[in-house]
Design brief:
By secondary structure, the protein is of the alpha/beta class. It is built from five helices and eleven strands. Strands 1, 2, 3, 4, 5, 6, 7, 8, 9, 10 and 11 form an eleven-stranded mixed β-sheet that branches. Strand 3 and strand 4 form a beta hairpin. The longest helix has 25 residues. The site of zinc ion (ZN) has 6 residues, from loops.
Length: 267
């Protein structure tokens, strides 16, 4: 079912992000692939039309491996979204990427299993280029926005996406780190790829919450629940600030290679 509501920019995130959206109204979107994670909040940020979706649902009830990624991305597309900001909470696989810093990822490694990760099951065979998974126009905008807010920003980084819901073993984590990958997460794939299949620009901001388990000797003393909540809230505010700034800088009428990703993808 197509809705008459429209938005130019899509934003994923936690339920704490609702306060970002001005004049928000809830919009339910149905897709041929089922229901998205929740109702969308449609409204404005910096005068631009934005569609916001909490990828785990409002009450954080959908674990990473159960998210209906196709429905979420199809719904974004059907709302008219051209460019998507996909922030994620992530672990760090390397000492040089510190908790509290943010990574504007430029590569992704898929270690998930069994997730439906394409819209193109035939009969028209479609091979989409994904050598550079993130939008070349949005990445510099995001980097500049984070830096302008004095956020400790890493301009490059590879995210390894694990299936979850379990965390990695020490050996898996060491293996990922030894490959030179910096960031680990459970939701970035297939979200970023499905955006490309639907010719939407996509940029990730990885908020580093902690060091992954393989980094022995780097985990300090265990933090209290209170400290975790405090760190989370402080970072949530920083991510919200970053999203506002990025939306402000995005040219909604700009054209980009991501928006013609299917050219040459079919025989
Ligand atoms: Zn793009």
């Amino acid at each position: 079912m197509q809705t008459k509501e429209r938005a130019d920019i899509g934003v994923f995130g936690g339920s704490g992000f609702y306060s970002l959206i001005e004049n928000a109204r809830e919009v339910e979107v149905e897709t041929p692939y089922g229901s998205p994670s929740d109702a969308f909040a449609l409204g404005e940020i910096a005068g631009k039309k934005v569609a916001f979706l909490p990828r785990h649902g409002k009450a954080h009830r959908i674990p990473p491996h159960m998210i209906n990624y196709r429905a979420n991305m199809w719904a974004m597309k059907s709302l008219g979204v051209k460019r998507i900001i996909g922030p994620t909470a992530c672990g760090s696989l390397t000492k040089k990427v510190e908790p509290g810093s943010m990574v504007v990822a430029d590569q992704v490694v898929d270690r998930t299993t069994g997730r439906i990760d394409t819209f193109y099951d035939g009969p028209v065979t479609t091979h989409v280029s994904f050598a550079d998974p993130y939008c070349p126009q949005l990445r510099p905008i995001a980097i500049e926005a984070l830096k302008s807010l004095n956020i400790n920003t890493h301009e490059h980084g590879t995210i390894v996406v694990v299936q979850g819901p379990r965390f990695s073993t020490r050996s898996e984590s060491k293996w990922f780190a030894s490959a030179g990958w910096e960031v680990i997460n459970m939701t970035q794939y297939p979200e970023c790829y499905l955006a490309r299949e639907l010719e939407m620009c996509y940029v990730n901001i990885s908020l580093i919450t902690d060091y992954d388990v393989g980094l022995e000797g780097l985990e300090g003393p265990p933090v209290s629940h209170h400290e975790v909540i405090e760190v989370f809230n402080r970072n949530n505010a920083r991510v919200k600030g970053a999203i506002s700034r990025i939306v402000e800088k995005i040219d909604v009428n700009g054209t980009c290679g991501c928006q013609s990703a299917l050219q040459g993808a079919r025989a």
